[in-house]
Amino acid sequence: MSSNNPFFSVIIPCYNCAKYLPECLNSLITQDYTQWEAIVVNDASTDNSYDVASRFATQDNRIRLLNKEKNEGLHLARKSGTALSAGKYVLFLDSDDAFAKGTLNKIHSTIQKELPDILRFGLICREQKGMSSRAARDFEAWANVDSPVSDQEQLLSDVFISANEYGRDWHVTHKAFQGDICRKAFNVMTDSRLERAEDSYEFLVLASMSDLELTDTSIHGYIYNIGRGVTTNSALPLNQFLISAKQMKSCWMEAEHFASSTDSMLVKKSAVRLKERLTFALMNEWKDRVSENEKVEAAKSIASIIGKTEAATALMRFARDDAYASLEYLNPKTSSFLAWADLAEELTSGIDTLPVSYTQMRDAALRHIQEFKGTQTLHKQQEEQRIKIFVSTHKRTSAFSSDILQPVHVGSAKSSTRFPYCWSDDEGENISNRNPRYCELTTQYWAWKNIDADYYGFCHYRRYFDFSETPHEENAFGEVIDDYIDADAAKKYRLDDESIANVVKQYDVITTPFGNLKKIIDKHGTPRALWEAAPLLHDDDLKRCYQILCSMYPDYKQDAQAFFNGNKACFCNMFIMKREIFFDYCEWMFPILEEFDKNTDYSTYSKEALRTPGHLSERLLNIYLLHHKRIGSNWKFKELQCVHFTNPEPAEQLKPLDITDKPIVPVVFAADDNYVPQLTTTVYSAMKNADPHYFYDVTVLQRNIAWDKQERLRGFFKQFPNMNLRFTNVDRELAGYDLSTNNAHISVETYYRFLIQKVLPFYDKVLYLDSDIIINGDIAKLYNIDLQGKMLGAIRDIDFLANLNVKHGKRMGYAQTVLKMKNPYDYFQAGVLVLNTKAMREHYTIKQWLTYASNPDFIYNDQDVLNAHCEGNVLYLPWEWNVVHDCGGRVGNLFVQAPNDIYDAYMKSRNDPQIVHYAGFQKPWTDPDCDFASMYWKYARETPFYERLLKRVVKANESEIPAGVLRPKHERAVGEDNPIRKIVDPLMPIGSRRRDAVKAIGRAVRGRH
Q1: Could you give the CA distance from residue 336 to residue 296 in angstroms, rounded to a whole number?
Q2: What share of the chain is helix, strand, coil (3-state, %, to 5)?
Q3: 773-775 and 915-917 as β-strands: parallel, antiparallel, unpaired?
Q4: What is residue 150's DSSP assignment?
Q5: Distance separating alpha carbons of residues 55 and 954, to the nearest angstrom
Q6: Which end of the chain, N or C, is surrounded by fewer C-beta atoms within 10 Å?
Q7: Picking from 268-282, 640-654, 850-864, which range would have the lowest pLDDT averaged per residue?
Q8: 520 with 477: CB under 8 angstroms?
Q9: pLDDT tens-digit profile of 322-339?
């Protein structure tokens, strides 16, 4: 094959790249594959690029030179070069980049196997001109992401329509294009100058004419010198930014023009998404590279180029992100996002109908801005307080409504996150990095060195002072035990600013009670004995601290001895002191610990032993106070009880998703830890049949699902980019209600649906689904049914309606007298509900719902409550959305007694069930032969909890199989070396009844006996 009939044509546009062109051309000349031609398009360079290219062309006849007298830009250079090409495949190589050794040979070998229209290969990213190594690695990782073999639809979808806001790369470099397709594509492309985003337009046209793309990113063949071209982190002057914006606009307008010339809706949609992604990238450039003092003017100018709502949406996006980030800092570096949000509102002020993408982004931004302003207002109020009681915490917890009680994030110097509404102990002069040893003392040190107040107090996120005058019962450790930090607790223990101030101002020092160690904390008798009884503390540490104390402060020796040999002490490092006393205490205590710390080797200490300085400080506080009582400092002391809250975690408050590009379908499930396998199967079936044009916000209401299972579920469902999965604990909401069920097959989780209107206050419509169902249809269709103002949508309960017609049956009397239904034949099944949560909030409170549900006379507690209180306010949905299975033969024995039209509608729905509901005692995981079981297992076997479901089948059926009856009389189906044995044998040992049961079930499924 000669250079006149090459396999590869390499198009190399060049403008003022004389410095880099030799490297580029040498990388081509030294390739071990030789059947190529190179067309260097000199785009009217003003340097000596022409001379360099000419020299190479003279030395190698495979290199041709096209010299342009007028500079026309990268796109037209590529177009001109492609028109002159003759290769079976065309590659594009920028003149400041290069090919790695052996690239063409590897590409040729791969192409010969499949003859694709496009071969996408990998690149190597080399940072240039100050570009950061991290930026280079991130770009390289993004560009080298693998992708499947793609037809035209898949290719356009992945590159342009992907839900990922960054999509897949559309560069025409590091790709080989079938020659005839490439020449045809460039022939129909615009003759206008395109820059900055010309690749996006070019690849759209190329992809729309291609039927097969292969990817082999193991070929790291393209060397991309990031930073040599326009990819840079440098500041961008306003005029250059606007020029760049116009260049990008030209690219998406040409893409729209091309798309309009085709009949393909996919190409048209790709062009729309191309514009959205270019706008996204352009506004990111505004955020990252335009100077702060030019940002507002640049945003106003860009609105006239890309559109007001497009610019406003981006501004709200940045306002959302920066406001959220600033929540974690008391003194954020900038609050420019406030001006951006104002400008976005200004740009859209005259527009009557705003797109959903903007309104959703606006709502999210304004929500975070409101939170940010709230934190700033709170801390301003806290700074003005003269009494400050600092609450040390290392995690997010509930807090009382108080300006005096001020949370402090301890150990924040080593934390990757910050907590809104919290001070941080690493600000100003601090010892935050010592928190693993000093515990809450890092808060005390920070307050001592940085905070101005008249009174300084300290407590713990679990433990607070009781400022009430009512004595409360204490446990064996001298603590008052309570559950939640809430308004009731604040009232009970007088944890409000007025009550706190009234007590504090009367005393010089306030501590927890000095308890008698002969009666509390395991009755060890003395502080010394208590320390020695602690298994993880070192006795020598207490001795050394005592020696340091006596050496530094000899007049405290008597007090130390009295304390260690006495039987009283206060604990928890909780105290409140007047300023001068607190400063004196810190000046006395911290040098002692400093000396101890300096002379202690912690290398072999356990985690608890590392906290020794914190433990020692509790003892030092007692000694300090005893000393001042002994010498007659005349301080007024007060002891307040310590309240220990067992559940200090904040009440979970779910927030709206920041999803702007798809309609959201809110879906709620309820489950416990035991039901996770069934929950997983149900949700998986829903998402397998979900519409990719919708986003599914899946919320699981629960009280005890283990964290590792939650994480496993999150990981499993990451395969669905149009889904969000979150778990929320409803324990607090149900506290105080006596909830039980009168049906062995119904769990207490059935009541969780009453909480939906409160847990998801930002949704006015929500889909509730039981976890014992399989979903064959797209639930977005169910959700989109117009409820016509009704409180809920549901499907009639054929089981209940059939029971109404049972001769001499009691169900009719129950419906009329207990449920007080006017028309019992309107009774619905509550496993599938479309809830009008807005209307539900207007009619009933959570307290009312749960009070109704506590009625012991109800048979189907929650379902009966809904039927009793929603009658006449229900839209009845098509039967196929809740097809109950034939449990125990009830279809033939019971359902036939239902009203004729009801029975016919139910039987018809069985032919094409959108949702199958395994309501009743027979479930696929207890009876694998039950009605619609095969449908269930089709989904279940693809979930990570499949083996757990199989185990339940075995457990439910093993008692029915006599021991020894099913012993194998044949060669083992699974050989000794089969890796499956590693999974099966521990669960079902050879010869066990459980193993025999599983094999019997398996044979039954296959029709063998």
Answers
A1: 10
A2: 45, 15, 35
A3: antiparallel
A4: B
A5: 79
A6: C
A7: 850-864
A8: yes
A9: 998 887 665 666 789 999
Contact 804, 811 (CB under 8 A): yes
- Phi then psi dihedrals of residue 919, to 5 deg: -85, 130
- Integer Cα distance of 485 and 650 in angstroms: 8
DSSP β-bridge partners for residue 11? 39, 92
Rounded mean pLDDT, 874-891: 96
Mean model confidence pLDDT for the chain? 90
Looking at per-residue confidence, does 629 or 967 come out higher? 629
SS3 state of residue 95: coil
Query: 643 in the Ramachandran plot: left (φ > 0), alpha (ψ -120 to 50) or beta?
Result: beta
* CA separation, residue 785 to residues 472, 763, 764 (Å): 55, 16, 14
The residues near 587 (Cβ < 8 Å, ≥ 6 apart) are none
- Rounded to whole angstroms, the maximal C-alpha distance in the chain is 107
With vertex at residue 198, the alpha carbon angle to CA 195 and CA 202, rounded to the nearest 5 degrees, is 155
Percentage of residues of the chain with pLDDT beyond 90: 75
Q: Are 50 and 68 in contact (CB under 8 A)?
A: no
Give the residue among 580, 562, 573 at the shortest CA–CA distance from 623: 562
CA 705 vs. chain centroid, Å, equals: 18
* C-alpha to C-alpha distance for 80 and 187, rounded to whole angstroms: 9
In sequence order, what are the residues at sequence separation of 6 or more whose Cβ sits closer than 8 angstroms to the Cβ of residue 832? 768, 769, 770, 773, 782, 794, 795, 877, 881, 882, 915, 917
Per the listing, tokens 């109908």 go with: 353
Predicted confidence at residue 328, as pLDDT, reads: 63
CB atoms within 10 A of CB 164: 10
DSSP string over 435-470: HHHHTTHHHHHHHHHH---SEEEEEESSEEE--SSS
Q: Which of 141-155, 262-276, 662-676, 993-1007 has the lowest mean pLDDT?
A: 993-1007
DSSP H or E segment with residue 639: strand 637-639
Q: Tell me, what's the pLDDT at 731?
A: 80
* 746 pLDDT above the threshold of 50: no
Residue type, 735: A
Separation CA 984–CA 946 (nearest Å): 12
Edge-first strand listing for the sheet containing 36-43: 63-68, 36-43, 8-14, 89-92, 175-178, 118-127, 213-226, 98-99
Per-residue pLDDT, 971: 47
Instruction: State the Cα–Cα distance between residues 119 and 101, nearest whole angstrom.
Output: 18
Cα 587 versus chain centre, distance: 45
708 to 673, 674, 962: CA distances (angstroms): 11, 13, 37
Distance CA 282, CA 305 (A): 11
Contact 442, 435 (CB under 8 A): yes
Q: Which two tokens stand for residue 941?
A: 């076997």
Is the pLDDT at 745 greater than 50, yes or no? no
Angstrom distance (rounded) from CA 877 to CA 80: 62
- Residue 658: the pLDDT is 80
**CA-to-CA separations, 342 to 266, 323, 729, in angstroms, rounded:** 37, 13, 37
Contact at 8 Å (CB) between 553 and 617? no
Beta sheet of 915-917, edge-to-edge order: 773-775, 915-917, 883-884
Identity of the amino acid at 481: I
Q: How big is the CA angle at 428 (ends 422 and 432), to the nearest 5 degrees? A: 65
Write phi, then psi, for 567 (nearest 5 degrees). Answer: -130, 15
Element (H, E) at 216: strand 213-226
Q: Which residues contact 269 (CB under 8 A, 6 or more apart)?
A: 160, 161
Question: Model confidence over 963-975: pLDDT tens digits?
Answer: 554 444 444 445 5
**DSSP assignment letter at 652:** P
